[in-house]
Structures are given as structure tokens and as C-alpha cells.
Amino acid sequence: ANCVNQQRCPVDMATDQTLLSREPTHHEDTGTDNLSEGNQKGSYPSVGMVKTSEDGYNWRKYGQKQVKGSEYPRSYYKCTHPNCQVKKKVERSHDGQITEIIYKGAHNHAKPQPNRRAALGSTFSLDEMSEMGEGSGTCVKVEGGSVWTNIQSTTEIRHGSEGRTDGLERTSSTSVITDLSDPLSTTQGKSVGVFESAETPELSSTLASHDDEEDGATQGSILLGEDADDEESESKRRKKECCLIETN
DNA sequence: AGCCTTTGACCAGCG
DNA sequence: TCGCTGGTCAAAGGC
């Protein structure tokens, strides 16, 4: 059912947004990252892809590329769930530290049961992540028109995708950007977790009309909302800090 | 046997 | 129209 709507709507990438998950940006301390990167050699069979970010979802890498703005390669992941078209781009430094994560889309399903990778992920998901995020400073940004900006006013809007950012984010090794649209200055200083329908009226309406049921859930609240509440706030704060730092 | 990662090639958008 | 860049595909290989 979900896919139907999604397929019909070209909104594939434009409509999504949402869940911001923080990724454990770390090194190989926790092993989290280790799995991801170290995975190359193969280490964890069952949890094979615990990788990139323990956000509770299963991801499959489908590409990697060296982008211009960043010195490090960017990896492309897709949610492995049948009807889920969520994708994410992860940029990480040579040492495995995640410098940037961009989510594109919203999951139309709940997180996989904790019997798999989720176990690892959920285990220290938000809570740990928040901390980790703080430590190494990794930020997540969501791509899409309407966005649930998790990051508040501190969010730094990056225009384009490469442009001038090289100095800033790279340096700080972390970037928090809300890739909403671009120069829509309106968005930025806004709210946290507020649906900015204003930005994408068309999309919003589109979604509202049919996505309400499935995508509605996807709007993001469910994702983090259910298992993360307090943590979420905290993470937000972290991000905020992170952003601030970066901004500075 | 199944799923994931890796990697080069291909395609589309933009200046 | 051409070249560049980002994003995706698909084959090959590994666990």
C-alpha cells in the first residue's frame, strides 16, 4: 500500500525528510564504526551491516564516490526494507569518523526488531549516539522539502552542496546542515520538530492527501519518537551545540 | 544460499 | 554543446 503512493508520487526524494538520527561518529572505539568500515574485510556475519550508523534500520551500501566539496569519499546507502526507499549519504574521514550524514526520505516502516543489527543499534542508539555525537561531533542532516528540522535555529544552511563549505565543516569535521532547499532563509531559524509545510506546500498537500496513513507515520515522529523522547531532546541539544561549535 | 560491500561505468542535471 | 559533478546501477567477490 505504501509503495503505491510512493511510486505514484514523484516525491521520492523531495518529500521525504524526517528522521534525524544521530550517528555514532566515532572512531573505532565502540566498534560501531569499526563494523562499518572494518566491515570491508568482513567481520560480523549475522550483523553484517551494522555499519554506518546504528540508527536501528538496515542499510545496504549501493555506491561510494569522492565528491568535490569533501576530501573524503561519500557512501550511499539504501534502506533494505522492501517498501522503504529511504536513502542516506554518509561522509566519513579516513579514520572512519563520520563527518556528515544526510538522510533522504522517511521510513515507512518501523525499525527492525532488535534481533538483528538493531540490537546493536538500539542498544545504544539515541542515548549513546547522542553522547558520541557530542564527542566527535557528527551531525545529521535531512534532505527533502518539508522537513522536520530537528536541529534548531542553530542549523546552518548550506547552499548548494559544495560551494564554499569546504573550510567550515571540513575543518570542524562535522557539519550540521539542513538541506531544505537552499536559500530559503525562512527555514533556517526555525523550529525544531516543526513541520514546515510552508516550504513545500505542494508536497505537503500531496502527502497529506494520501500519505497520511503510511507516510504520516513516517513523518518522523514515530521513528525517534517512540524509543527516544528524552534522549531526543538531548540529542537535539547536542546537535545544537555541535552546530554552534561549527558555526563558530 | 543469501545478503552485503566494492568498484567502475553510466546517466542526468547544471554552468 | 561540452565538461564536470553527483547519484545510481550492476557485476564480481566475500562472508
UniProtKB/TrEMBL annotation:
Residue ranges occupied by any WRKY domain in the UniProt entry = 48-112
Gene Ontology molecular function: any one: sequence-specific DNA binding
Q: Where is there biased composition of kind Basic and acidic residues?
A: 156-169
What is the name of this protein?
A: WRKY transcription factor 64
Q: Where is the composition biased (Polar residues)?
A: 32-43, 170-190
Spell out the residue ranges making up region: Disordered.
22-45, 153-237
Where can this protein be found?
Nucleus
Q: Name one GO cellular component term.
A: nucleus
Keywords assigned: DNA-binding, Nucleus, Repeat, Transcription, Transcription regulation
- Source organism per UniProt: Ziziphus jujuba (Chinese jujube)
